[in-house]
Write a structure and sequence with these properties.
By secondary structure, the chain is of the alpha/beta class. It folds into 2 domains: 292 residues, Purple Acid Phosphatase, chain A, domain 2; 116 residues, no CATH class. It contains 15 helices and 21 strands. The chain has a 6-stranded mixed sheet with strand order 1-5-6-10-13-12. Strands 4-3-2-14-15 form a 5-stranded mixed sheet, with helices on one face.
């Protein structure tokens, strides 16, 4: 089947879907055509989509392609079922490319049956640190420039995704949460969404913020430990719902061990749809089948028995820290003895602020310095692990390490300016490391390593 053409007709899209459901990749020209057509479609949508029940709400997927197929199996296939996806389609899992392309083609083929919101991982910056960028390069390894073009094409669609949705004018849906800068839903429609997610401001808050059950009555918002967005409490939710005539909020963004977590007496609910997250967390997952604001069902499921495509010849390890490492001090000690550079991801993707606005270019794309923290070697992580444990409350800005151009080149990163050789860069250490998260989330049903 030759798909190296412009994909414009329903028949062509159906051919693409057959390949995508089978876990096969589309040629670049087909991806380019899908993305170009989809941008033309999505630009017509408002920042806040107006949807109707019945509809099935899906939380984070994170490249777990087989579990996406499981969602369609238990929730119904498109176009027989209406879906609202709350974002975070890529990164972390092994099959972000297959996952996002299936969803994009479904959106183009059945635009009124599936709605896609933007999550914090629908970002050029984040995807370069958490797997999707590398996956595009690796899976189109016969032509590195083609893999880069695929990544650029897909991430350009992210800029056109809506930021929130209203269902039956009574249910508010968003990836992350609320913002102190947004009082009414109408204000969301005034945001210029056609851009990369900024470091701060209302757009960033919608995809980064989290509910916090322990804020005091007089505390509506608090700066988030993620380094982006806010923690918001019950009073902020009640005020937002009262002002906008909303009876219920659904959001995603945080891992729930049972797949769902209700906050503030059920006024707000976190939905998580990636079972056994990162193939190691052992959590359940949930999709929400909504018939009305007072009638919805949490459909719980576990991970698919398959997590690897049968067509894969090589063992895929796009995020080595999730698939190969025992996260304890012994690992870091071994790495120090072997002095082996490793590009494993850290366990946080917080897009933290920086006092320095200097931007470097990697593979033709702007990367904020703080996002390069995830390519620091395992040896560097070990040197700072004890400091992180003893200083969990330390500010990101005050905890730094240095990495020079030679180290970056070893990691396959092309960095400018050229004189970086003589000027090492300084990056913030992420206090939201996996060790930190495990220590501080033992008593929580929601864990913060996203």
């Amino acid at each position: 089947m030759d798909l190296s053409f412009l994909v414009t007709t329903p028949e062509n899209l159906d051919d693409c879907l057959k390949l995508l459901y089978a876990g096969q990749l589309l040629p670049y020209l087909s991806i380019e055509s899908v993305c170009n057509s989809l941008r033309e479609l999505l630009v017509q949508d408002s920042n806040v989509l107006q949807l109707s029940t019945p509809i099935t709400i899906v939380g984070d997927i994170h490249g777990q392609f087989h579990d996406l197929l499981e969602i369609f199996s238990i929730g119904g296939h498109i176009p027989d079922t209406n879906y609202l996806f709350l974002g975070d389609y890529v990164d972390r899992g092994l099959y972000s490319l297959e996952t996002i392309m299936l969803l994009l083609v479904l959106k183009l083929r059945y635009p009124n049956r599936i709605a896609l919101l933007r999550g914090n991982h629908e970002s050029r910056q984040i995807t370069q640190s958490y797997g999707f960028y590398n996956e595009c390069i690796n899976k189109y390894s016969s032509a590195t420039s083609e893999g880069l073009a695929v990544w650029k094409c897909i991430t350009s669609v992210f800029d056109f995704l809506s930021l929130a949705a209203k269902v039956d004018d009574e249910i508010f849906c968003v990836h992350g949460g609320l913002s102190p800068n947004i009082q009414t839903i109408d204000q969301i429609n005034l945001i210029d969404r056609f851009k990369e997610i900024p470091h701060d401001g209302p757009m960033a808050d919608l995809v980064w913020s989290d509910p916090e059950n322990f804020l005091q009555m007089d505390e509506n918002f608090q700066v988030s430990t993620r380094g982006a967005g806010y923690l918001f409490g019950e009073e902020a939710v009640k005020s937002f719902c009262r002002r906008n005539n909303i009876k219920k909020i659904f959001r995603a963004h945080q891992l729930c061990q049972e797949g769902v977590q209700e906050h503030f007496n059920g006024l707000l609910t976190t939905v998580w749809s990636a079972p056994n997250y990162c193939y190691r967390c052992g959590n359940k997952a949930v999709i929400v089948e909504v018939n009305s604001v007072d009638s919805f069902n949490y459909n719980t499921f576990v991970e698919s028995q398959d997590y690897k495509l049968k067509t894969d010849v090589d063992v895929l390890m796009l995020n080595p820290s999730y698939f190969t490492l025992d996260e304890d001090d012994d690992y870091y000690e071994e790495e120090e003895e072997e002095e082996d550079d490793d590009d494993s991801d850290s366990d946080s993707d917080s897009d933290s602020d920086s006092d320095d606005d200097e931007i470097y270019t990697m593979e033709g794309t702007n990367i904020e310095k703080e996002l390069l923290e995830d390519v620091v070697s395992a040896k560097t992580k070990q040197k700072n692990s004890k400091r992180d444990k003893n200083n969990n409350s330390r500010s990101r800005k005050n905890s730094t390490v240095s990495i020079n151009a030679e180290d970056l080149i070893k990691l396959g990163l092309e960095v400018t300016p050229d004189n970086l050789e003589s000027t090492p860069m300084t990056f913030p250490i992420d206090v939201f490391s996996d060790t930190y998260q495990k220590t501080n989330s033992k008593d929580r049903q929601v864990e913060y390593f996203l």
